[in-house]
């Protein structure tokens, strides 16, 4: 690859129209009638978009590898192959009511970076590595961001392979079903630095009229499985005071969750995202309810305090209503600061492009938050409409996506030389 002077690389821009076209081209894999995407990790649709991604990367001259958890790595050689690659990417899986941008933007903007460098005939000193991490969303298999966590050494590959979805299918079986259990050992590939472009998924950039979020870190997350055991009884004959209605226990607990998060606000948030009456029947008082709880804050001590208060509330409600409310913490991710050097590279890239920007902390979890435990890492945010994400109506402008891709390109050039 040819050498190019720094001044000509500073003028280099991604092709925003081509990026926009690829975002919409891949949106057909799992596309929903409402214009969103339902592409749960390791589903048939995820297999289809992975195949598309591999072919597009190979057409761009990249060498694609797959690790034992299905993460795809597309390598562009550097002039000095003794250097670890500068990596960038995100995820192609979505929520069941996902949009076209969450994760997708970071992967396809990475592809656009590779294509732009190819078109301009520009080589980098360090190799470049575009990554599509398996199961960022955590909707089908918990926890979220599991493959990047295994990459960073927070879980073993076998622990992740054994995780089951609601139907009892393991990650290993789901990988085999779409042919994406790769041969590379997880974590084997060295990475020199990692940068992830993503939509903000919140309202701050849009409200302040800023194009770029220079992300300084991610907030802490705790996930729980909850179970309430009351007592099933006849809906027509059980007088109201004698009931041990598990759904009413959950209703009270849900209000306690809201009260506790508000009391620790404004940064604290907590959500019961799944709730199921077990053995439901129209004329049976619900006896057993299962639910999930997602709780977040940028401060570790606040997560501790909220958990203690939630457990107290569960005990109080259960005692008063004569039922057990059990909360089991299945995952906790501590708040993560990003690397000052990579954050500065993102800031300098945005400044060089003349883009309005602000420092920001991520409310969502991202693979970058796991990578940060092992590799110098930072993120780039662009606005999304009304701050809405995890919704089929999720939307971002072509101009903001292109600006984000330009910042990614210029950051990567700064880091890779
Ligand atoms: C991932 O989307 C998360 O923040 O839960
Ligand atoms: Mn995401
Ligand atoms: Mn998401």
UniProtKB/TrEMBL annotation:
It is an enzyme of class 3 (hydrolase). InterPro entries: Amidase_Cbmase, Bact_exopeptidase_dim_dom, Peptidase_M20, Peptidase_M20_dimer. It holds the Pfam family Peptidase_M20. The keyword Acyltransferase does not apply. Its EC number is 3.5.1.87. Keywords: Hydrolase. The keyword Hydrolase applies. One of its GO terms (molecular function) is N-carbamoyl-L-amino-acid hydrolase activity. Coiled coil: none annotated. It comes from the Bacteria. CDD domains: M20_bAS. Residues 219-318 form the Peptidase M20 dimerisation domain. Belongs to the peptidase M20 family. This is N-carbamoyl-L-amino-acid hydrolase.
């Amino acid at each position: 690859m040819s050498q190019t002077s720094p001044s000509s690389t500073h003028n280099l821009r991604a092709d925003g129209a081509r990026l926009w076209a690829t975002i919409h081209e891949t949106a057909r894999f799992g596309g929903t009638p409402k214009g969103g995407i339902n592409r749960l990790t390791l589903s048939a649709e995820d297999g289809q978009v992975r195949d598309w991604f591999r072919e597009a990367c190979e057409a761009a001259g990249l060498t694609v590898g797959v690790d034992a958890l299905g993460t795809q790595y597309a390598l562009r050689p550097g002039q000095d192959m003794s250097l670890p690659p500068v990596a960038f990417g995100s995820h192609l899986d979505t929520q069941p009511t996902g949009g076209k941008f969450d994760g997708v933007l970071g992967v396809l903007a990475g592809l656009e970076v590779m294509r732009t460098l190819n078109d301009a005939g520009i080589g980098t000193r360090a190799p470049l590595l575009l990554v599509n991490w398996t199961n960022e969303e955590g909707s089908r298999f918990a926890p979220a961001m599991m493959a990047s966590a295994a990459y960073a050494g927070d879980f073993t590959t076998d622990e992740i392979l054994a995780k089951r979805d609601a139907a009892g299918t393991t990650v290993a079986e789901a990988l085999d079903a779409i042919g994406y259990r790769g041969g590379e050992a997880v974590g084997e590939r060295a990475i020199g630095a990692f940068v992830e472009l993503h939509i903000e998924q919140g309202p701050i950039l849009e409200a302040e009229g800023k194009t770029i979020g220079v992300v300084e870190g991610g907030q802490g997350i705790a996930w729980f499985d909850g179970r309430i055991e009351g007592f099933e009884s006849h809906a027509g004959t059980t007088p109201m005071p004698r009931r041990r209605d598990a759904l009413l226990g959950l209703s009270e607990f849900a209000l306690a969750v809201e009260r506790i998060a508000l009391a620790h606000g404004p940064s604290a948030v907590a959500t019961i995202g799944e709730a199921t009456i077990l053995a439901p029947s129209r004329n049976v008082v619900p006896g057993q309810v299962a639910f999930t709880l997602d709780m977040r804050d940028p401060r570790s001590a606040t997560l501790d305090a909220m958990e203690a208060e939630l457990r107290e509330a569960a005990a109080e409600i259960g005692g008063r209503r004569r039922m057990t409310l059990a909360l089991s913490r299945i995952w906790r991710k501590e708040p993560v600061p990003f690397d000052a050097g990579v954050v500065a590279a993102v800031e300098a890239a945005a400044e060089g492009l003349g883009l309005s920007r602000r420092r920001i902390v991520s409310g969502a979890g991202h693979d970058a938050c796991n990578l940060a435990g092992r590799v110098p890492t930072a993120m780039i945010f662009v606005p999304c409409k009304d701050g809405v994400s995890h919704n089929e109506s999720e939307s971002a402008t072509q101009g903001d996506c292109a600006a984000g891709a330009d910042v990614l390109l210029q950051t990567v050039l700064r880091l890779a030389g």
